Amino acid sequence: MTQGEILFELEGEPPRVIKAGEALFEPGGDVIHIQGANNLADAQSQLVVTMFAPPGTPVLTLVSEEELAERRHLRVPPP
Q1: Which string of b and e fits 22-53 if b means at least 16 CB within 10 Å?
Q2: I need a labelling partner for 23 at 20 to 30 A (CA). Which of 6, 15, 45, 79 fits?
Q3: Beta-sheet strand order (sheet of 5-10)
Q4: In whole angstroms, what is the distance from residue 43 CA to residue 4 CA?
């Protein structure tokens, strides 16, 4: 994170806040990135992302609403 803070959630993990100066790792494979949203109502947030993928494969795969619904049980419920 280079500025501000984001609310970040990966499938199987509780949502957490990432603040400026902190780093995060998002595994590839069969883990869905559920959200990454600005956590500040009165300021912008900014991060730098580096993504890797084997040659000839997509770096980003969008998930359908149906697949999200099928995997809803993998989300960590809010406290």
Answers
A1: eeeeeeeeeeeebebeebeeeeebebeeeeee
A2: 79
A3: 16-19, 5-10, 33-38
A4: 7
Q: Is the pTM of this model over 0.70?
A: yes
Single-letter residue type at 32: I
Burial of 71 (0-12, 13-18, 19+ CB in 10 A): middle
Cα–Cα–Cα angle for 45, 47, 48, rounded to 5 degrees: 160
Per-residue pLDDT of 57-72, as tens digits, reads 988 889 999 999 999 9
Answer for the pair 60, 50: CB distance below 8 angstroms, yes or no. Answer: no
CA nearest 4: which of 15, 17, 20, 16?
A: 20
